[in-house]
């Protein structure tokens, strides 16, 4: 996972958890829902990056890295 993407996904998850908690404390259902949505967005971003890493590892394991341009 790229460091920037990982940081962004964790940031979204933390921000969402804080929003959800604030919504619970204040009884604000909309804020709770926003928090859950923010967490889901972070989870989805993390899953996407994990999938990309897995595919990249599989391709590299098959020798596909010989044909991929260097970065």
UniProtKB/TrEMBL annotation:
The record's annotation in SUPFAM superfamilies points to: Hypothetical protein YjbJ
Sequence ranges assigned to domain CsbD-like in this UniProt record: 7-56
**Domain of life of the source:** Bacteria
- Give the span(s) annotated as Disordered: 1-71
The family database entries (Pfam families) matched by this protein are listed as: CsbD (PF05532)
Q: Where is the composition biased (Basic and acidic residues)?
A: 7-55
According to its UniProt record, which protein family does this protein belong to?
Belongs to the UPF0337 (CsbD) family.
| Name of protein | UPF0337 protein
């Amino acid at each position: 996972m790229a460091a920037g993407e990982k940081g962004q996904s964790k940031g979204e998850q933390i921000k969402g958890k804080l929003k959800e908690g604030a919504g619970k404390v204040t009884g604000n259902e909309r804020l709770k829902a926003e928090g859950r949505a923010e967490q889901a967005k972070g989870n989805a971003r993390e899953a996407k990056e994990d999938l990309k890493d897995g595919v990249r590892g599989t391709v590299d394991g098959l020798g596909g890295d010989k044909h991929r341009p260097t970065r």
